[in-house]
Design a protein that fits this description.
Vanillyl-alcohol Oxidase, Chain A, domain 3, globular, about 25% helix, 3 domains, 14 helices, alpha+beta, Uridine Diphospho-n-acetylenolpyruvylglucosamine Reductase, domain 3, about 525 residues
């Protein structure tokens, strides 16, 4: 009977009849959180059940359409979650409920549209928790699996939610609901949305626990390369912000304490006042427009000072706490007071992040020192260069697949089209290309710019097995979009080598015509294999 109902809905969709699956909202586009990337699907559906998702996919298959799943306001800088123009977009905003909860086995099954912080709020009342997997708690469960969202820990089996999934239900490319285990589950743990629509996820839980946070600033970064792995391995969770232009770094370290330890603190690093945000905005704009790098370094000093002292607050009083203790999720996962008005939504902030073999991190730091030394007065004004850590993942195409990993991130002021680039952005690009080509780095699937996704299949040992899983689950290639076509090599990045492509973040320059007016395509000053518009 259910199959008949789905076929009826699919038939109505093929006939062009508007039915309940259509969104009640008038928007025909979806955009990223910054409003810098807008996608133009032909239709946007907000299904409420697995059966409705099946009907949508069956209709798309019958019409020769492709399908992608992503929120109307998606948490990515690029089009990874966008359906192609005039194709089918699904959001799971109405599929955000708990399906089944088994306290005895410490497992929970949830719909993929559930927000991570909502899951944690429920689990805390049950005396349970999810292993540490991220810093920002407002992502959806499905989105976290699509991109391989991660946090920082070498003590737990993994720093990714993906590796705590025991079962996953998807709607495949023929509209069938399938429960994945074994090899297919490992392929789908990080899936880019191209294996099917993830509709339900079962997670392995653990007992709730509290952590104590220790925040410190160091006025000298001498010998950081010799210390960094010891810091990572001797703490449950380590987050390190290195400011090489200042010769300083900060550490935020978490370690478990007994559950009855007094303290109810929360991570307040996103609690920025309107006044603070206003002045940060002025400083960011000035750093773009004024000559020299002095303002950029001033901003870096301000960020260092903010990160060098506790940014944790008491849940009851709202006051900052110098020796914070609290539940693991509230301490490690921050969220904005208003989820629709986070500071990075309103200020021009972008991110680049890659993952390298953890054992290579000391040498990577030495190489970055040389790059920065070749570019005096280079500062990284937002969070410096940010290090996090994780054990090897079971996923086929997760950033840490098959190797213990150091995650390296740089935040920078956004390059807005028609506006000046951030000061010394070419230094970021030299570091980026050095990471990719010398250290075999893997880019984060939801961050970065188009240019960074070069030679992606060669960066993962199990890429062929991932393609085999796609062929099995999606034999008619229903789940695809321009992002997948680029990273899989179906559309080579060379196709983006057009005049001004470097300005748009679509290419690393090969000739001067790829560069902004007034710059030339030159070798990197330290890593000479890089090509930089300078």
């Amino acid at each position: 009977m259910k199959k008949v109902g789905r076929l009826l809905l699919a038939g109505l969709a093929v006939a062009g009849v508007a039915f309940a699956l259509h969104s009640n909202e008038p928007e025909s586009t979806i955009s990223n959180y910054q409003g810098t990337y807008t996608c133009h699907p032909g239709v946007i559906y907000d299904p409420t059940s697995v059966e409705e998702v099946q009907a949508i996919v069956e209709a798309a298959l019958a019409q020769g359409k492709t399908v992608m799943t992503g929120n109307r306001k998606f948490a990515s800088q690029i089009d990874a979650a966008c359906a192609a123009d005039d194709q089918v977009q699904i959001t799971l905003k109405q599929m955000d409920k708990i399906v089944q909860f088994d306290a005895a086995s410490k497992q929970i099954t949830v719909e993929a549209g559930m927000r991570f912080n909502d899951l944690n709020e429920f689990l805390r009342t049950q005396g349970l928790a999810v292993n540490m997997v991220t810093e920002l708690g407002t992502f959806t469960i499905g989105g976290m699996l699509g991109s391989g969202t991660h946090g920082s820990t070498l003590e737990k089996p993994s720093n990714m939610l993906a590796d705590y999934v025991t079962r996953m239900k998807i709607v495949d490319g023929q509209g069938q609901a399938r429960v994945l285990t074994g090899d297919l589950l490992d392929a789908a743990r990080v899936n880019l949305g191209v294996l099917g629509v993830v509709v339900e996820v079962t997670l392995q839980l653990e007992d709730a626990f509290k952590v104590k946070a220790d925040v410190k600033g160091y006025l000298s970064d001498e010998g950081l390369e010799e210390k960094v792995l010891e810091i990572a391995r001797s703490n449950y969770s380590a987050n390190i912000a290195w400011f090489p232009g200042l010769g300083r770094y900060t550490t935020t370290l978490y370690n478990p304490v007994p559950l009855d330890t007094p303290g109810e603190a929360y991570n307040a690093q996103a609690d920025v006042s309107d006044v603070e945000e206003f002045f940060f905005g002025l400083l960011f704009n000035a750093a773009h427009e004024f000559p020299g790098s002095g303002l950029q370094c001033l901003a870096a000093k301000a960020r260092y000072q903010a990160r060098a002292k506790s940014y944790f607050r008491d849940i009851q009083t709202g006051k900052k706490i110098s020796d914070p203790v609290g539940y693991s999720d509230q301490m490690q996962y921050f969220k904005c007071k208003d989820p629709n008005k986070c500071i990075w939504d309103r200020l021009p902030i972008a991110l680049q992040e890659v993952a390298i073999d953890i054992e290579q991190l000391p040498d990577w730091i030495r190489d970055v020192r040389q790059i920065v030394a070749a570019h005096p007065r280079t500062c990284f004004p937002l969070n410096g260069i940010y290090f996090r850590f994780g054990q090897a993942s079971k996923s086929y195409i997760g950033m840490s697949a098959d190797r213990d990993t150091a995650f390296v991130g740089i935040e920078y002021t956004l390059r807005q089209e028609g506006k000046k680039e951030p000061k010394n952005y070419f230094v970021n690009l030299e570091i980026e290309q050095m990471s990719l080509r010398k250290y075999g780095a893997r880019p984060h699937w939801g961050k970065n710019s188009v240019a960074i996704f070069e030679e992606m299949p060669s960066r993962f040992n199990r890429w062929p097995e991932f393609l085999q899983a796609k062929n099995e689950l999606d034999p008619f290639n229903v789940f695809t979009n321009p992002f997948w076509e680029r990273v899989s090599g179906e559309i080579p990045l060379e196709d983006y080598l057009t005049p001004g492509c470097n300005t748009r973040g679509e290419c690393y320059c090969q000739t001067d015509e790829h560069c902004p007016t007034g710059t030339r395509c030159q070798p990197g000053r330290s890593y000479t294999d890089a090509r930089i518009c300078r």
